[in-house]
Automatic annotation (TrEMBL):
Gene3D superfamilies: Glycogen Phosphorylase B
Family of this protein: Belongs to the glycogen phosphorylase family.
Top EC class, one word: transferase
Cofactor field: pyridoxal 5'-phosphate
Main location: cytoplasm
Listed name of the protein: Alpha-1,4 glucan phosphorylase
Cellular-component GO terms for this entry: cytoplasm
InterPro entries noted in UniProt: Glycg_phsphrylas, Glyco_trans_35, Pyridoxal_P_attach_site
Amino acid sequence: MAHFKDNITADSLAERALFHLKYSRGKDLRSATTFDKMMCFSHVVRDMAVDGFIATQRQYLDTDVRRVNYLSMEYLIGKMLANNVVALGIVNESREALKQLDITVEEILELDVEAGLGNGGLGRLAACYLDSLATMELPAYGYGIRYEHGIFRQEFENGWQKERPDEWLALGYPWELVRPEYTLPVCVYGRVKKNFQPGKGASDVWEDFQVFEAVPFDVPIIGYGVNTVNMLRLWKSQPAEGFRLDVFNQGDYVRAVEEKNWAENVSKVLYPSDYTYAGKELRLIQEYFLASCSVRDIIRRYRKTHSDFTKFAEKNVVQLNDTHPTLAIVELMRVLHDEERIPWDKAWEITTSTFCYTNHTLLAEALEKWTVDLLQRVLPRHMQIIFEINHRFLQKVEINHPGEGELMRKVSLIEEGAHKQVRMANLCVIGSSKVNGVSALHSELLKTETMPEFDKVYPGKFTNVTNGITHRRWLIKANPELSELISDQIGEEWMKDLSKLEGFQDAASKRTVQKRFMEIKRAKKVELCETIKELTGYLVSPDSVFDVQIKRLHMYKRQLLKAMHIIHLYNTIKKNPKATVQSKTFIFAAKAAPAYLIAKSVIKLINTMAEVINNDVDVAGRLKVVFLPDYNVSLAEKIIPAADISEQISTAGLEASGTGNMKLSLNGALTVGTWDGANIEIAQHVGEDNIFIFGNRTEDLAVLRRKGYNPWSYVDKSEDLQAVLEAIRDNIFDRTQPDLFKDLYNEVTEHGDFYFYLADYEEYIKCNEEVDKLYAKPSKWAEKAILNVARMGWFSSDRSIQDYCNDIWYLERTPVDMTADIL
């Protein structure tokens, strides 16, 4: 079968780049900037993607395949240019072509734009899944929002996090195709009235609503080494009627653009702050915006080949990535029942057969809820439908479980109280055919702890799909030197099928491979040292252990526990400056939600510690602490290959899965972690001898909670812990502000230590001592690190997607033929 790469040469790429330089950028080589060259070469690669995209869509349409529609509020796709060049297999050709433009690949890659479409693991997972779906030649569409600003650009001011606008679209984005012909109206507010028709009874009609529009932008997602190019469709909001010339001419300049500003705000920022009523309202509208546009776009595409809805669920599966797109369930019901006049029971059967739901959290505060009052105000007809869904559902529960009032209360969509709320997770479960967790432990706890009543009502509906990562970005692209070492040992088949990576474990005991592996690791550390110097000004040694904790800043993820360990080491040195302490560089990168004040205090603490420890003559370089600002995919690609230690120290039972743990292990970092999330499965695959597990397990913490956990009992019996806590309480790092970190001290003492820092502290210190002992044996360390790499094949997102296909989606592989003329 013909492929993209056929007939592609360095000369043809250079010729096409010069064409775009002239006709897309309006420049010649003499006047072109580095940015011009990056943009024009990006358009060359996009041209190739468009060829595949057109062929792929034609294949799907002609064969009327079953498709998955992946709805997610976040897609952290990272920089696309290098990723797409790798996927197309034109790395060498690109390097040679760019020489003809008098520039290097490295120079233009530095200027590629990172899309501000996500914040954390949810978005990185979605991006990995899109990559795998295309590579595995599976019919798929991603749906999201084209945020004008990403979550925020993080800067540090006097050690405190400061949020700045993320202007990622300011210079244009070469990877998108705007589709104004598919613009959709979106309706909000208004009221519902009864419409009586003779002989037909009364129907509910939504009217007097406010209308704005959604414009789709498509980003091609290129499969690795195949012809499939799937699509990520991102919606941008705009006013249905923009500038009011009549109002402007009357002199009311503010009101003239009021509607325009209001409509554009919907896709302005990822996760607008919901600490005000207006913020909550905007976030709800944002979620409905994604749900409504995506559902109606799926219907539009379905109608190309179908005149009724009898096969809608057969041809479409909609995967809800967390609860943010939940309103898609209600929107499909509204369209089917109100607009298509399909009877309720049949519409509900179609809806529940179409949707599936991925749960990402066990934290009660993270299970989304919306007040009934707000929903009635913004989406009055949808609130009616939710009430009707709940009424019919509870009737069935009462029939099947008579007299179980507590069960009814727990599974109801409506949470009673002073302000009634709609439980979106409950709606997802009721409205979906399958519900999955994202690691074995998480899925089990979902059934036994978080939603046991639903497991009783719907036996068999809950299942598990452990998360995965795409090695194409996180190993082949991020660490080409390690990839080359692997290929030298076992060939290149692993690049397409990561399960083949297991062959690399035979090389783990070879001294020559160990030596080369550690040389590669050090080279990556040298590169990261330059980044650290550039971003923080700190000089760190590549010969120190790089101890890495990179993830969203949350108290349950316990960055503060790592800080406590560093204070322990610092205290040890201050007591005895000649003490033997392993030279370590502690690397943090994380963003805290703008209103999450205690998490921001952790950032301030670590930055304050860094300023003192990094300049203390007693420490003499044995400890360095760096907090890298504005953590994103590009920064992760630099940190992960350089890491020696991967910190995965969440409170047991609270991390759904994690994917950073997989990326770090895949690049040869040894995990220090709790028995939580996917750490468990990593331990099972790499071997418990090749991972450092510490701390209380989920069942242990349940016992502590039941007995009445007292954090002071741990403080009283440990002088070391007392000293660490006092260092935080009294702020020994800045005596001029002694009360600065009292909130952190109180969090783990007076306020009950909800996340069990103190219960796990002693084991954590001992665990790190074991790490140091192993690092003192370079050959043994290298062997274990290589075994981590070799045994991570199961954690490919390709395997995750195959699990979805086998148990939830039932998709069929659909190869794309590039031989036919695409015009």
